[in-house]
Amino acid sequence: MTAATPAQYFDAIYSDDDPFGYRERWYEARKRSLLLASLPAARFADAWEIGCSNGELTAALAPRCDRLLATDLSARAVALATSRTQGLAHVRARQARHPDDWPDGRFDLIVFSEVGYYLDAATLSRMAARLRASLRDGGVLVACHWLAPFREAPLSGRDVHRLLRRRLALPRLFAYADGDLRLEGWGGGGRSVAQRAGLR
């Protein structure tokens, strides 16, 4: 990603294999469960996780995907994600600086979690346009962000979701928010889970 937050920040934090406590904190385990439960299909053909960090969410997404691309700005994070998903031939972890580096093809699922607030508004706006163009017809984009402001982030989680709603201009499939996080999904042709299953 093109980060308003300096790349050196990410280089420094990944001196720790689990700098955000993805493996140990109930908050993180709960957030993963919320995100996975929100997905409107049991399985996706082609998925892309942006900001894969050390691969904990990547490993949880992998059983739901035929092919999964995981990207991160940090080379160390990519190495950790590669190790975490070792033996899963359908998962690829790659270092990339988005939106300058962009994968080929289109995706049925894009997961944009805990990334947006590291970008300035102009870069996030440009990225949102590219994300929409990278969704297949009926594809789903899921975003999840911490809401409390912190020094290293030029945007708040609320700012990120407001901008995404405006720039994606896609039907919102779901939204969840509490005092700590916001989780939203857009796209899917505007069809609910029950509609996709033919229940209504």
Summarize the structure.
By secondary structure, the chain is of the alpha/beta class. It has helices at residues 7-13, 26-38, 56-61, 75-84, 121-133, 157-168, 193-196; strands spanning 44-50, 65-72, 91-95, 107-113, 135-146, 172-177, 181-187. A 7-stranded mixed beta sheet has the order 3-2-1-4-5-7-6, with helices on both faces.
Topology:
Blueprint: H1 7-13, H2 26-38, E1 44-50, H3 56-61, E2 65-72, H4 75-84, E3 91-95, E4 107-113, H5 121-133, E5 135-146, H6 157-168, E6 172-177, E7 181-187, H7 193-196
Parallel strand pairs: 1-2, 1-4, 2-3, 4-5
Antiparallel strand pairs: 5-7, 6-7
From the structure above, extract its key features.
200 residues; 26% strand; 7 helices; alpha/beta; Rossmann fold; single chain
Description:
- The protein has one domain: Vaccinia Virus protein VP39 (Rossmann fold), CATH 3.40.50.
- The protein is built from seven helices and seven strands.
- The model has no long low-confidence stretch (mean pLDDT about 95).
- Strands 3-2-1-4-5-7-6 form a seven-stranded mixed β-sheet, with helices on both faces.
- It has about 200 residues and is α/β, with parallel strands linked by helices.
- It is globular, with a radius of gyration of 16 Å.
- It starts with 6 loop residues before the first helix and ends with a helix.
- A hairpin with a 3-residue loop joins β6 and β7.
Give the total of domains: 1
Strand-pairing-aware structural class: alpha/beta
Q: Treating each run of at least 4 consecutive H or I residues as one helix, how many helices? A: 7
The CATH topology comes to Rossmann fold
Taking Cα atoms only, what radius of gyration do you get, to the nearest Å? 16 Å
Let me know the average pLDDT: 94
Annotated CATH architecture = 3-Layer(aba) Sandwich
Which blocks of ≥5 consecutive residues have pLDDT under 50? none
- Classified in CATH, the superfamily is Vaccinia Virus protein VP39
Structural shape: globular
End-to-end gap = 40 Å
**H and E order:** HHEHEHEEHEHEEH
Number of strands: 7
Oligomer: single chain
